[in-house]
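// run 5 | inverse folding | seed 20
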């Protein structure tokens, strides 16, 4: 019996042990499966993240590339801008201005000479000199010169009332507009006297000068040429009068000499707009 009982007991213990082990191993297996599954999940997630990372990297790369492209574009634009700027810098601009015309003979001579040389100038005309010389004003406009206002009868407008001064300027501007289609926007006040309080100042820009050889006092061509060449620099506004033959001859000589030095003659408007 003992042996039987012992045998049964051993059998039971073995059976129990097997069940225990079986359960244990099943659990272990389940745990392993779960762990593996979890690990798989993590791996999948890692992969997903890595993919996102690559995507992010790719975006960043693209962005960087794009930025670089934009930078390059910007550099190219800057370089193009510099090149244009340098070209503009290389062009030494200077302006010739002529007061008191139009003269029936000398202004025509001057216009012919300027046209031959491809020069644009500015003419501050006196209104009372225009009637009968409309063709000269028309030629100025056709040749691309700027026509400015030097009052109607060459008066000191600063000594007039604002109303009278404006009438002086308007009379000349109207004459020019009837001939060319454009009113005058720039004024050179006779004797350089401009009253800033003038009511009409808002529609007219006063233009003075930086080089004055006093051509009307000497009427000597070579002296006028020498004085201008001595003083002339970039962006200067030279004052001459197209009412004297000596001044017209001087003007054309000045053009030849300064063009040879690399100057480009422009209208006062072009100089002031810089
Ligand atoms: Ni004058």
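// decoded
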């Amino acid at each position: 019996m003992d042996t039987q009982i012992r045998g049964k007991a051993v059998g039971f213990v073995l059976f129990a042990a097997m069940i225990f082990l079986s359960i244990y191993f099943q659990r272990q297996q389940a745990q392993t499966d779960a762990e593996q599954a979890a690990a798989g999940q993590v791996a999948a997630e890692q992969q997903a993240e890595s993919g996102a990372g690559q995507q992010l990297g790719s975006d960043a790369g693209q962005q960087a590339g794009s930025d670089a492209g934009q930078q390059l574009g910007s550099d190219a634009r800057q370089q193009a801008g510099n090149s244009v700027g340098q070209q503009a810098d290389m062009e030494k601009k200077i302006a010739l201005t002529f007061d008191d015309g139009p003269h029936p003979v000398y202004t025509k001579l001057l216009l012919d000479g300027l046209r031959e040389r491809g020069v644009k100038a500015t003419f501050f005309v006196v209104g009372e000199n225009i009637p009968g010389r409309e063709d000269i004003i028309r030629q100025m406009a056709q040749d691309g010169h700027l026509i400015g206002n030097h009052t109607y009868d060459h008066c000191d407008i600063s000594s007039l009332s604002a109303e009278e001064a404006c009438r002086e300027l308007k009379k000349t501007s109207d004459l020019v507009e009837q001939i060319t289609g454009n009113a005058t926007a720039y004024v050179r006040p006779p004797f350089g006297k401009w009253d800033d309080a003038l009511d009409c100042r808002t529609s007219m820009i006063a233009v003075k000068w930086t080089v004055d050889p006093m051509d009307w006092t000497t009427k000597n061509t070579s002296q006028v040429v020498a004085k201008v060449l001595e003083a002339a620099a970039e962006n200067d506004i030279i004052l001459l009068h197209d009412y004297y033959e000596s001044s017209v001859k001087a003007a054309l000589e000045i053009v030849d000499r300064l063009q040879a030095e690399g100057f480009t003659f422009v209208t006062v408007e072009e100089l002031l707009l810089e």
